[in-house]
Amino acid sequence: MNPEEKMLLKRAVDLSEDNNQMLNKLVRAMRWGRLLSSLYWIILIGISVGAFYFVQPYINQLIGAYTNAQDTFNSLGSFVKPN
Fold first, then answer.
1. 0.70 cut: is pTM over it?
2. pLDDT tens digits for range 29-68
3. How far, in Å, CA of 81 to CA of 83, rounded?
4. Cα pseudo-dihedral 51, 52, 55, 58, rounded to 10
């Protein structure tokens, strides 16, 4: 093997090692990205469920007030209508 072929072979090996390092970094970054994205969605869904849990009594009160108002208007309507 002449010196020029050795130099080309060494250059090819160096480039393949650099490519391997870059690919490993990309794979690592993709894994971290997936993990952080999953964590983001888990937190977002958890906060939504928790907020609904804490707001639910107020929603039930609003629904009860609406139902009472509707019943009141219906009873007022029966007094106003002539039978």
1. no
2. 999 999 999 999 999 999 999 999 999 999 999 999 999 9
3. 6
4. 170
